[in-house]
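Apologies for my clumsy wording, but are you able to produce some protein sequence, whichever is easiest, and the tokens describing how it folds?
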Amino acid sequence: MARKILVVDDEAILLDTISYNLEQSGYQVIRTGDGLSALEAARRDPPDLVVLDIMLPGIDGLEVCRQLRRDRATAQVPIIMLTAKAEEIDKVVGLEVGADDYMTKPFGRRELLARVRALLRRVDYPVKEESNQNAVSFDDGQPRRKELIVGPLAIDQAGRKVSNHGQNIELQPKQFDLLTYLVRNRGTVLTRDQLLHHVWGYDYAGDTRTVDVHIRWLREKLEDEPANPRLIQTVRGVGYVFRG
């Protein structure tokens, strides 16, 4: 069955172009041109992925994203945010409200399809288990363990659930994938580029702020003192390491 993608943009030409490219690649597309219609469409028939413009009439894309994340039926649906603005703050705000990815207009067909495939692939096939916990490669072909346990932290890979000290922690798809990858490589310092490549699945063209934002989210949800993290530590000038 074709994967269903909700495309939301008030620019008719861009809406048609994005929809056409996705349909030509085998996806089923639902089109809407405003925020309210997008919310109604998503709640009526939850999509597999949302391509969402920030600047929309009525309810803007940021508020649409917030509401989708609050709704249980759409809380885990991957969201790609579109913005015509190049300032980094706009991209960060999109990530802050729950988007998994962002694209700055104009963008090409190949970039769009690559990002759609990467997000859907990560939802369908979370990163594979490694035979060596400290190895960065994860193509060993070994069966995946159903649960990763590090101290009070438990990661249920099959159910994509996380608990800390026995309390369930709500994580968005990319947060879950990032945490899982850090835990599997416990003790290994990972660069931001490595995390972008392995967790997001393609080259982010140097937008490593994406990693920093997601790391901050994880610390706020997992650390007793987010400002003085014990589990996910920063290695200045390099990247991050999981020390739990």
User: Anything to note?
Assistant: The chain has eight helices and twelve strands. The longest strand covers residues 4-8. Residues 126-144 have pLDDT under 50 and may be disordered. The helical segments are 12-24, 35-44, 61-70, 88-96, 109-124, 173-184, 192-200, 209-222.
